[in-house]
Amino acid sequence: MKQITLTVNGTPHRVTVDDSTLLLDALREQVGCFSVREGCGVGACGACTVLADGMSVSSCLALALRYEGAEITTVEGLGENDHVVNAFVDCDAAQCGYCIPGFVLMSHELLRENPKPTEEQITDHLEGNICRCGTYPEIRKAVATAADRKVGE
Q1: Nearest Cα to 130, choosing from 62, 8, 37?
Q2: Which of 105, 113, 133, 151 counts the highest number of beta carbons within 10 A?
Q3: Same domain, yes or no: 101 and 52
Q4: 131 with 91, same domain?
Q5: Structure confidence by residue, pLDDT tens digits, 4-23
């Protein structure tokens, strides 16, 4: 076992890990970021998505040791007035909500890379995230709405 520092949402956290500790487990069990969820455990559903230095990571597959020194963002770190979160709320882009943190973070990644994506680009970027409730039209609308609001600022 060893101690490392994970910087999560701008705050350093000392965590104890071994060579096989998953980033998902360190974030949930030691940092207290419960928006990071295990859906499938094999990186196929997106429920465990976090951003590490702005890039999406399936935390259920990522070893915590590899992320010492990275800036990790979870939805807990997004501001109260986050334009993507607000667009998801305004567009009713959630039913059960289990998958939404992953979709929100993937949307942030997309909008950082492409501030004005087409509907096809939105669909393509989010294809690794699964919504079991089937709110895909509302999710795509929320991302487009967030993009429009950001461009209009």
Answers
A1: 37
A2: 105
A3: no
A4: yes
A5: 999 999 999 999 999 999 99
- The tokens describing 118, both together, are 């087409």
- Domain CATH code at residue 91: 1.10.150.120
pLDDT digits (tens, 9 = 90+) for 111-130: 999 999 999 999 999 999 99
Does residue 146 sit in the same domain as residue 89?
Answer: yes
Q: Which two tokens stand for residue 61?
A: 């597959």
Taken in order 115, 116, 121, 127, is the CA torsion positive or negative? positive
Kindly state the DSSP code that residue 92 receives in the 8-state scheme: T
Contact between 142 and 91 (Cβ < 8 Å)? yes
DSSP state letters, 100-113: HHHHHHHHHHHHHH
